[in-house]
Amino acid sequence: MLQVNPMSGAIGAEVSGIDLSEDLTDLEFSELESLFLQYEVLFFRDQPFPPEAHARFARRFGEPQCHEAYPHISGFPELTILENDEAHPSKIEMWHTDMTFRPCPPVGSILHGVVIPERGGDTLFASMSAAYDNLSETLQSFLSGLTAIHDFSHGFQESLDEPGGRERLGQMLSDNPPVEHPVIRTHPVTGKKGVFVNSLFTVEICGMKARESDALLQFLYDHAVLPEHTCRFSWQPNSIAFWDNRITQHKPVNDYWPQRRKMQRITIDDGIRPV
User: Fold this and answer.
1) pLDDT confidence of residue 163
2) What string of pLDDT tens digits covers the 275 residues of the chain?
3) Which residues, other chains included, contact 221 with Cβ-Cβ below 8 Å and sequence gap of 6+?
4) Ordered domains of the chain (ranges, CATH)
5) Which residues pair with 150 in a beta bridge?
6) Strand 41-44 relative to strand 13-16: parallel, antiparallel, unpaired?
7) Alpha helix (H) ranges present in 43-189?
8) Residue 172: its pLDDT value, please?
9) Rg of the chain's alpha carbons, rounded to an integer?
10) Fewest Cβ atoms closer than 10 Å to its Cβ: which of 1, 122, 171, 214?
11) What is the Cα–Cα distance from 234 to 40, expressed in whole angstroms?
12) Ramachandran category for residue 40: left, alpha or beta (phi over 0 → left; psi -120 to 50 → alpha)
């Protein structure tokens, strides 16, 4: 039987009483899906998760998306490796929603802790539905009529500026021109509304002067990640985080350098454009 321990008032729950490396029964899948939609990010402990189990679990929720900017596990192109150590410090330090530079960003991501530093390396999560709900009705109405531009090159500028970066990521640049998404997104399953801009990939609000756009985006970035909208997850080996990318943001806490941290991740597709 599943045990559920909410992590904060706004977002997140730790779930136990299930082995994710085994095939899920229909009842287990239904219960997890319901919890996923309710809490927006689920956490699991003590889950050995070989690549085949990781891929099988992800496919119960949808088809994986590949992310060509990262290395992947041999034989599993959908399983990216996120590894940092003394020679390779993390480059992603900003709050973000994954891959909003694509016309159809992922449903969610399933991240497995393989090598965890002795201390540090937590991940923060923020509920974009809580962020929306805590706006005034006047601002909710105003924002709901706006769209914004999201750009791969903005989020990966540091990697692109590295020697050989534009050659290495040339195909990603070509495949991912800037896209336009609503500033307020309606979740396609729950109908919850959420803020859908993030500081890593969003570059401007359409139809505004640059000064206006910058000021409004900065307000939304700050508002979205207020403490009352967030939770914090401390990793252990074989921990898993499974978040709903349509209604959350997250941020790695890069306080573990020069220790080593290795994660494996799958992102899940549904082919639905944000509306």
Assistant:
1) 76
2) 899 999 999 999 999 999 999 999 999 999 999 999 999 999 999 999 999 999 999 999 999 877 666 666 777 778 999 899 888 888 778 999 999 999 999 999 999 999 999 999 999 999 999 999 999 999 999 999 999 999 998 887 776 666 776 777 778 888 889 999 999 999 999 999 999 999 999 999 999 999 999 999 999 999 999 999 999 999 999 999 999 999 999 999 999 999 999 999 999 998 899 99
3) 95, 197, 198, 199
4) 3-269 (3.60.130.10)
5) 179, 202
6) parallel
7) 51-59, 128-133, 137-143, 152-155, 157-161, 165-168, 170-175
8) 81
9) 18
10) 1
11) 17
12) left
Q: Tokens in use for 172?
A: 């990603």
Which residues are known to be catalytic?
A: 96, 98, 250, 265
3-state helix, strand, coil in the chain (%, to 5): 25, 30, 45
Give one DSSP letter per residue of 216-258, joined into a string.
HHHHHHHHHT-GGGEEEE---TT-EEEEETTSEEEEE----TT
On whether the CB atoms of residues 216 and 203 are closer than 8 A, the answer is no
Rounded distance, CA 78 to CA 217, Å? 32
Ramachandran bin of 101, using left for φ above 0, alpha for ψ from -120 to 50, beta for the remaining angles: alpha
Phi, psi for residue 264 in degrees, rounded to 5: -125, 140
Residue 174 buriedness (CB in 10 A; 0-12 / 13-18 / 19+): exposed
The three-point CA angle 179-230-142 to 5° equals: 50
